[in-house]
Design brief:
This protein is α+β, with helices and mostly antiparallel strands and 369 residues long. The chain has two domains: 122 residues, Mannose-Binding Protein A, subunit A (Mannose-Binding Protein A, Chain A, Roll), CATH 3.10.100; 217 residues, no CATH class. The protein has five helices and 24 strands. The two termini are 39 Å apart. It comes from Panagrolaimus sp. ES5. This is Small nuclear ribonucleoprotein Sm D3.
């Protein structure tokens, strides 16, 4: 039985949306309350909605609030409204009711020393004035648009959910070896797609999960040749782990040599590589053809010479020129397993050939000089 690493999508409703009548900006929903009340009562009303009087931390948000207030507060007598600043807790020291840092200010300098204790924003120009806290005014509440307690996601037994991507990752077993096309077809039958790397979290998860298995895996890298025809290129990968005891030796074009189980690298070392050699625990050595650089560490993907003329790689020379900078790599005999990432059902999966997604993207491919 061969272990297949299968990456599946789980569609969840984690994206928060703001109620009708409110304004959504960044991570907050802004409620413009036209009923006029004192400052403390306004804050209590915002608390009942799950938020606070609005705190303002940049000029854009300041203008956004003032301009929308002009649209929401229509009464001709309304010239300003409460926002969440006061010096009630410590006279002379202004703070926001939500506890955030009071770093941005937009005072109307003729009135910021009036001796009053609560902050109102002018509708006409967005400037701030210290006002009598007992004056009735309309007000603006800010409520977080992100769920405080995200729902528990149950991917099922032996599956891992990655919150940053919204996908479930797990494994199944298969009684045969699959080539790249068969692996892609199997993934589509399961409602997903061969795995593609788009961020550090996905790379780290792949790096962790491949440490559980000796076998190399297909990923969903493909290329478009110069005639704009899709050429599917299977990429068997084997991520080398420090714990396996392999020693990596790097030599740069200027003769510097780096040696270690996981080699530290300068950011631009991928442009300077002259020779990369792996020494196995049993003493065998061979050169590494392709190197992936991730942050300041180098992790390796091998394309042995014996595979370069294999059917799945017959267009590799042309594909490298037309793949928009994508790296091509592999390790061990092909067809050992698959890395799979699912997509939304009903239509081409993200990253699948013809699917229009980011499928072949990998982090910072580096080529041997």
């Amino acid at each position: 039985m061969f272990s297949l690493l299968i990456f599946l999508t789980l569609i969840t409703s984690l994206n928060a949306s703001c109620p009708n009548g409110s304004i959504e900006w960044q991570t907050n929903c802004y409620f413009f309350q036209s009923n006029q009340t004192a400052f403390v009562v306004a804050e209590e009303t915002c608390n009942s909605l799950g938020g606070h009087l609005v705190s303002i931390h940049d000029g854009f948000t300041n203008s956004l609030i003032a301009q929308n207030a002009g649209l929401k507060f229509h009464e001709s007598t309304v010239i300003d409204f409460w926002i969440g600043g006061s010096d009630l807790i410590s006279p002379g020291n202004w703070s926001w009711t939500d506890g955030s840092n009071f770093t941005f200010t937009n005072w109307n300098h003729s009135k910021n020393t009036s001796g009053e204790d609560c902050l109102a924003q002018s509708i006409s120009d967005g400037r701030w004035n210290a006002e009598d806290c007992f004056k009735p005014k309309p007000f603006v509440c800010a409520v977080s648009a992100i769920p405080t307690n995200p729902p528990f996601v149950d991917c099922g037994r032996m599956w891992i959910y990655l919150e940053s991507t919204g996908y479930c990752y797990g494994g199944v077993t298969a009684a045969k070896k699959y080539d790249w096309h068969e692996s892609q077809s199997l993934c589509e039958q399961l409602g997903g797609n061969l795995f593609s790397i788009h961020n550090d979290n996905e790379w780290d998860l792949l790096y962790t999960l491949t440490g559980m298995s000796y076998y190399s895996l297909w990923i969903g890298l493909y290329s478009i040749d110069n005639e704009k025809n899709m050429t599917a290129i299977g990429v068997p990968i084997k991520v080398l782990h420090e714990a396996e005891g392999h020693i990596i030796t790097l030599e740069t074009c200027v003769g510097e040599v780096y040696r270690g189980k996981l080699v530290e690298a300068e950011d631009n070392m991928n442009c300077q590589l002259s020779d990369v050699t792996m020494t196995h625990r049993d003493g065998r050595t061979h050169n590494l053809e392709n190197v992936f650089v991730r942050g300041s560490q180098i992790r390796f993907i091998v394309l042995p010479d014996m595979l370069k003329n294999a059917p799945m790689f017959k267009n590799i020379g042309r594909a490298q020129k037309g793949a928009h900078g994508m790296g091509l790599g592999g390790a061990a005999p092909r067809g050992r397993g698959s890395a799979f990432r699912g997509g939304r059902g009903g239509g081409p999966m993200r990253g699948a050939p013809g699917g229009g997604g980011r499928g072949g993207a990998v982090p910072r491919p580096a080529y041997r000089a």
